[in-house]
Design a protein that fits this description.
Blueprint: H1 2-20, H2 24-34, H3 36-49, H4 51-57, E1 62-78, E2 84-104, H5 106-174, H6 179-214, H7 238-248, H8 250-270, E3 276-290, E4 293-294, E5 297-298, E6 301-315, H9 323-390, H10 395-429, H11 435-442
Antiparallel strand pairs: 1-2, 2-3, 2-4, 3-6, 4-5
Helix pairs in contact: 2-5, 3-5, 4-5, 5-6, 5-8, 5-10, 7-9, 8-9, 9-10
Length: 447
C-alpha cells in the first residue's frame, strides 16, 4: 500500500510539473545535449585542442626504425683476358634506428607558440558558441511565448467582436442601430479571423524553430510572470559596457588571437632564411647471407656489418626559387588582414554594447508606458461599452477600443520579452553571459 501511495504521489507530481510546462533553464539544458550546432562546436574545440601537442612535437626528438630484406641475383662479366665472370644469388637484410633532436629550428618554436594561441582561440570560439546557444534558446523560447500571447489576444478580440456583432444585429432588428454597425462589426470579425489564421501559422513556425534546437516538441512552456520587475543594467553607464565589450568580448578575443597568430606566421616564414641545427644519431646492421661465385669458386662466406654514428647536422638554406620570400609577403598581407578584422570586431562589439544597453533601458521605459496604457485602454473600453448601451457611442467606437486593448497587451508582452533578451545579449557582447544568467531569467517565469 505504501509503495502504491508513493507511486501515486510521484505520478501526481509528474503530471503537475508537466502541466506547468518547461521553463527556460530546462529547455536550455536540453539544448546543451541535443542542439546539432552546439554539438559541432563541441567537436570543433576538441579538434582545436590537438593543435598544442602537434606544435610541441616540433620541439621534441623524432625516432625512426627502418628495416629491409632483398633477394639479389648478380651476373657480372668483365671483358678482359682472361675474362672474369662473377655470379651469385644471395639475400641481404638490415635495419637502422635513427634519432633526430632539433637544437635550433626557429620556425618550430614559433609554430609551438602559434599552437598555444590556436588553442586559446578554439576555447574562445567554444565559449562564443555556448553563449550563442543561450541567446538562440532564449529568443526561440520567448518567440513561442509571444506567438502564444498574440494568438490568445486575437482570439479574445475575435470573441469580443463576435459578441459585439451579435449585439449590433439585435440592435438593428429592434431598430436601435443602423445596418452600418452590423457591417462594421462583420468586417472587423472577418479581419480578426484572417489574423487568427496567420497567428496560428506563426505560432507553429516558432514552435518548430524551438524544436530544431532541442530535438523534440517543447510542449507547454512556463509563461513570464507579470508581477516581477525587470531590472536595469548594472553598471548603469553605457560607456562602461562599451569599454568592456571592446576589451573582453569573445568576438574581440577570437580576432585578437587570430591577429597574434598572424604575427607569429610572419616570424615563422622569415625563419625560412635561418639555418637549422639538429642532433642526429643512427645505429644499424646489414647482413649478407652468401658471397659471389666465380670460375675459381666462392669468394668467401657471408658477412654482418654493424654501424653507429652520432653528430650535429647543420642545414643552411641558400635559394629555394623565391618561395620563402613569397610566403613571407603572403604572411605579412595576412597579418594586415587580421589586424583590420580585429579593429572591425572591436567596433562591432562597441556598437552591440550600445545597441543592447539602449534596448534594455528603452525597453524598461516602454514596459512602464505600456502598463499605464493598458490600464487606460481598459478604462476607455469600459466607458465606450457603457456609452454604446446608453446611445452616446456607436459600434465602431467600441470595436476600436477593444482593438486598442488587445494591441496594447501584445505590445506589452513583446516589450517584456525583448527587454529580457536584450539583457542577455548585453551580457553576451561583453563575454559575461553564463548559465547563471539563464537561471535568473528562468526564475521570472511562472513555475
Amino acid at each position: 500500500m505504501k509503495l502504491k501511495a508513493a507511486v501515486l504521489i510521484l505520478s501526481v507530481l509528474g503530471l503537475s510539473a508537466a502541466a506547468q510546462g518547461a521553463d527556460l533553464m530546462q529547455i536550455y539544458q536540453e539544448a546543451l545535449s541535443n542542439d546539432a550546432q552546439f554539438a559541432a562546436a563541441r567537436a570543433t574545440v576538441e579538434a582545436g585542442r590537438e593543435k598544442l601537442p602537434q606544435g610541441r612535437a616540433g620541439l621534441l626528438p623524432t625516432l625512426n626504425v627502418s628495416a629491409n630484406t632483398m633477394w639479389n641475383d648478380v651476373d657480372y662479366t668483365r671483358r678482359s683476358k682472361p675474362p672474369l665472370d662473377l655470379s651469385g644469388r644471395y639475400n641481404t637484410h638490415g635495419y637502422t634506428v635513427s634519432l633526430s633532436q632539433p637544437l635550433f629550428r626557429w620556425q618550430n618554436w614559433v609554430q609551438y607558440e602559434q599552437s598555444v594561441l590556436q588553442v586559446a582561440q578554439a576555447e574562445a570560439q567554444f565559449l562564443q558558441a555556448r553563449q550563442d546557444l543561450i541567446l538562440r534558446v532564449a529568443q526561440a523560447y520567448f518567440d513561442v511565448l509571444y506567438a502564444q500571447e498574440n494568438l490568445k489576444a486575437l482570439r479574445a478580440q475575435k470573441s469580443a467582436i463576435g459578441q459585439q456583432l451579435e449585439l449590433a444585429k439585435k440592435s438593428f432588428e429592434v431598430g436601435t442601430a443602423t445596418i452600418t454597425d452590423t457591417h462594421e462589426a462583420q468586417s472587423r470579425f472577418d479581419l480578426a479571423t484572417a489574423q487568427e489564421i496567420a497567428a496560428e501559422s506563426d505560432m507553429e513556425i516558432k514552435a518548430r524553430a524551438l524544436q530544431a534546437i532541442i530535438g523534440r516538441e517543447a510542449g507547454e512552456l512556463a509563461p513570464l510572470r507579470t508581477d516581477v520587475p525587470l531590472m536595469p543594467p548594472k553598471p548603469a553607464v553605457m560607456n562602461e559596457w562599451v569599454a568592456s565589450a571592446e576589451k573582453d568580448g569573445l568576438a574581440v578575443q577570437i580576432s585578437q588571437a587570430q591577429s597574434d597568430i598572424a604575427d607569429k606566421e610572419v616570424s615563422k616564414q622569415r625563419a625560412g632564411h635561418f639555418p637549422t641545427v639538429d642532433l642526429v644519431a643512427s645505429s644499424g646492421r646489414s647482413s649478407q647471407t652468401a658471397a659471389l661465385n666465380t670460375l675459381f669458386g666462392t669468394t668467401g662466406p657471408g658477412f654482418d656489418q654493424d654501424a653507429s654514428a652520432i653528430g650535429v647536422q647543420v642545414n643552411i638554406p641558400l635559394f629555394q626559387g623565391g618561395a620563402v620570400v613569397s610566403r613571407q609577403r603572403e604572411a605579412e598581407a595576412g597579418r594586415e588582414a587580421a589586424r583590420s578584422s580585429l579593429e572591425y570586431a572591436r567596433r562591432q562589439a562597441a556598437l552591440g554594447a550600445r545597441q543592447y544597453f539602449l534596448g534594455v533601458v528603452n525597453g524598461l521605459a516602454q514596459v512602464r508606458a505600456l502598463e499605464a496604457a493598458l490600464v487606460s485602454s481598459r478604462s476607455a473600453l469600459d466607458a465606450n461599452k457603457m456609452g454604446y448601451e446608453v446611445g452616446v457611442r456607436i459600434n465602431i467606437d467600441v470595436l476600436n477600443a477593444e482593438q486598442q486593448v488587445y494591441s496594447t497587451q501584445r505590445d506589452l508582452a513583446k516589450a517584456r520579452f525583448d527587454t529580457l533578451v536584450n539583457q542577455l545579449r548585453l551580457k553576451g557582447v561583453v563575454g559575461n553571459l553564463t548559465d547563471d544568467d539563464v537561471q535568473q531569467v528562468s526564475a521570472l517565469l511562472a513555475h
